[in-house]
Amino acid sequence: MISFDFLITSLIIVALPGTGVIYTVALGLGRGMKASIWAAFGCTLGIVPHMTASILGLAALLHASAVAFEIVRYLGVAWLLYMAWGMWHGTGAMKVTANESTAGVLKIIRDGILLNLLNPKLSVFFLAFLPQFVSAYTPDTTLEMTLLGLIFMAMTFGVFVIYGCFAAALRQHVLEQKKVIDLIGKCFAGGFILMSAKLALTNG
């Protein structure tokens, strides 16, 4: 049974700004609403491997294996820094197009997937988070955890789309102000750098 506590807790977690939110907002500002929706879709897909690993118990193995955790962690740090570089120079997600564009849809989705896929903390998070809301009397724990995970993913996509559409609505107000766009891009790049530093300092 899906509890109210699970829905509220999930909503709070999803709504907190993180790399996925920053990426989606950046696409909304730079390329418009459609691009931000694809970004939200990519970030949501990036959750699937972590959720699957948690349900199958593989996240525990990742957490227990220092080598595996370190490899994924540093790949994640490198990817965040790569994204920060693009945002800082206006060549990545913050590259502004004159008209709303979904050019490079596959690249937008790929980048969103990798943002979450290369964060080993998500597997550990799902391993700790989902079981808290599984009923002790459920006949099928795997099925219930899968349902909880799918709901969490749906909420992630919905909230990210809202963020992205809000950014896209503001797009026209800042589109002609290159200095503003440059400043926002550098702020977002700084956010990615801080998150990469936080991930680098994470203990497995």
Question: What report would you give on this structure?
Answer:
The protein has 204 residues and is an all-alpha fold. The chain has one domain (19-200). Helix content is 77%, strand content 0%. It has ten helices and no strands. Helix 2 packs antiparallel against helix 3.
Mean pLDDT metric:
79
- When the domains are counted, the total is 1
Q: For the report, how would you describe the main beta sheet?
A: none
Structural class: mainly alpha
Helices, by number, come to: 10
What is the beta-strand fraction? under 5%
Rg from Cα: 18 Å
Helix-strand pattern, N to C? HHHHHHHHHH
Q: Give the helix level as a range of percent.
A: over 70%
**Which blocks of ≥5 consecutive residues have pLDDT under 50?**
none
| N→C terminal distance | 32 Å
Number of strands: 0
**Molecular shape:** globular
Question: How are the SSEs placed, and which strands pair?
Answer:
Layout: H1 4-15, H2 19-31, H3 33-45, H4 48-56, H5 58-64, H6 66-89, H7 105-117, H8 120-129, H9 141-174, H10 178-200
Helix pairs in contact: 1-9, 2-3, 2-9, 2-10, 3-7, 3-9, 4-8, 4-9, 5-8, 6-10
Short description:
With 204 residues, the protein is mainly α. It has 10 helices and no strands. Helix 3 packs parallel to helix 7 (105-117).
Question: Keywords for this structure?
Answer:
204 residues, mainly alpha
